[in-house]
Specification:
Radius of gyration: 17 Å
CATH class: Alpha Beta
Shape: globular
CATH architecture: 3-Layer(aba) Sandwich
Number of domains: 1
Structural class: alpha/beta
Largest sheet: 5 strands, parallel
Low-confidence stretches: none
Strand content: 15-25%
Order of helices and strands: EHEHHEEEHHEHEHHEH
Oligomer: single chain
Helix content: 40-55%
Distance between the termini: 16 Å
């Protein structure tokens, strides 16, 4: 394996810190960060914009086939393009968050985005985060991490994030939304949220992003076959 050509999969439930951790980890390693949740969010945004019900599998599948979704590196992280439009901020709106799990449960959607995700990671040197990366998208990833955190902790993080964006939300509503997403993600028939059997569990409750990243970096020297992920320059 060549240095910098390995892949790292990070999975976990909503609000566990996947994107923030994966983004910083990729930066530390000089890897490409691929936020697969952003792909599903972009598709969900397109579904909502077209007034299609997220539960309508046939219509959602049509939207998926027609949508052009891209992820490109930006000065402040990845940029998400939907049919050429920068929707990086728009995909984080509460309405998208409330419906993304409904869109993601359709087999046709997951199959369509599975191909795209594997294409993005084909050259290695990637940190990819999502909910089925280690189990479905990149089952041969060199290192698999499964992030966890209490529902209460995740709700507090999400509430803080939304309020910083100007949304008026309550802790109770955000907690209910988090738990609802957990159930949908864990119970869907196709690629449900679960830890890969060889994934390393990392609890992020009460930890900042830097602490979690350092913990993950520590596993690079203890898990076999990760020479290509060396942080040495």
């Amino acid at each position: 394996m060549q240095t910098g050509k390995c892949s790292i999969a990070i999975d976990g439930p909503a609000g566990a810190g996947k994107s923030s951790v994966a983004r910083l980890l990729a930066k530390r390693l000089g890897f490409l960060h691929i936020d697969t949740g952003a792909l599903y969010r972009a598709l969900t945004l397109e579904v909502l914009r077209n007034s299609v019900k997220p539960t309508d599998a046939q219509e959602v599948a049509k939207i998926a086939e027609q949508a052009n979704i891209e992820i490109t590196p930006g000065s402040e992280g990845i940029r998400v393009l939907l049919n050429g439009e920068d929707v990086t901020k728009a995909i984080r709106e509460p309405m998208v968050s409330e419906n993304v799990s409904l869109v993601a449960q359709h087999p046709e959607v997951r199959e369509y985005l599975l191909v795209l995700q594997r294409q993005l990671a084909a050259d290695g040197g990637t940190v990819m985060d999502g909910r089925d990366i280690g189990t479905v998208v990149l089952p041969e990833a060199d290192l698999k991490i499964f992030l966890t955190a209490s529902a209460e902790e995740r709700a507090r993080r999400r509430m803080k994030e939304l309020r910083a964006q100007g949304y008026k939300v309550t802790y109770k509503d955000v907690l209910l939304s988090i738990r609802a997403r957990d159930n949908l993600d864990a119970e869907r028939l196709v690629a449900p949220l679960r830890a890969a059997t060889d994934a390393v569990p990392v609890d992020t409750t009460g930890k900042d992003v830097d602490t979690v990243v350092e913990e993950i970096l520590g596993h690079l020297s203890t898990v076999g076959g990760l020479d290509g992920c060396s942080t040495e320059q």
